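Hi V.,

You were right to ask for the full record rather than a summary. Here it is.
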Amino acid sequence: MSSKESTDPPIEILFTMMVRMYPLKALIWDYIDSVLDMARLMRRQETKRLSRTVKELRKDYDYSQSINAINRACSKKAMQWGLDLEDFLQDPLQEFAHEIKRGVEGF
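Predicted structure:
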């Protein structure tokens, strides 16, 4: 099969998908960090092993992202999109954080 007959999607589509996913991934990691911080501040022993595992996953993820030239080239714009998305979702996310806190306190 020649490269013109390839079933792979065009690079433009892949790039667009990556640019849209980057801020969402950054936002997800930010909220994971927030949940871990809440558990740490509340001194929940049950979360120690989970926190260590998540921190190791985050370290591996950050390393894999740092070696990707496309992410480095887009990070500034993607971060702005992430901040815009966070502003847009501010009220629902505050409700979500409140429910997490309420759930942890009831644990």
